[in-house]
């Protein structure tokens, strides 16, 4: 048999606490717990210098320098790739345009040859 909510000791204390605190108190508690959760690692890092790497260590500084150089090189390569891609697209458009112009000139020449051939044939056999 389950105890009624009024006789249960935990629910009774919860009800009394709820009556004692003003509205919005639980939000304040939530805010403080969030602040504690985010600030606790910072406080631990400042109090415990063993966890923080030595910023002046030459090995770490050399690795950071290598990383920045590689990032710069990567950005430069991405920029070059973008420029070459744009250039390639422009060249492709020019090739397509030249191809269509060449084909249209061939078709136009063929039509002219057909017309002149027909007129020459008529002149030849004119009565």
Described by the principal axes of the CA atoms, the overall outline is elongated
Provide the low-confidence segments as ranges.
none
Please give the number of β-strands: 0
What is the C-alpha radius of gyration, as a whole number of Å?
42 Å
Share of helical residues: over 70%
Q: Which structural class fits the helix and strand makeup?
A: mainly alpha
Q: What count of domains describes the coordinates? A: 2
Mean pLDDT: 75
Major β-sheet annotation: none
Beta-strand residue fraction = under 5%
What's the tally of helices?
A: 3
- The N- and C-terminal alpha carbons lie at a distance of 127 Å
- Order of SSEs: HHH
Structure overview:
With 127 residues, the protein is mainly alpha-helical. The protein has 3 helices and no strands. It has helices at residues 9-20, 25-47, 58-124. It is elongated, with a radius of gyration of 42 Å. Keywords: Coiled coil. This is Protein Hook homolog 2-like.
What's a concise summary of this model?
This protein has helices spanning 9-20, 25-47, 58-124. By secondary structure, the chain is mostly helical.
How are the SSEs placed, and which strands pair?
Layout lengths: L8 H12 L4 H23 L10 H67 L3
Task: Jot down its keywords.
elongated, 127 residues, mainly alpha
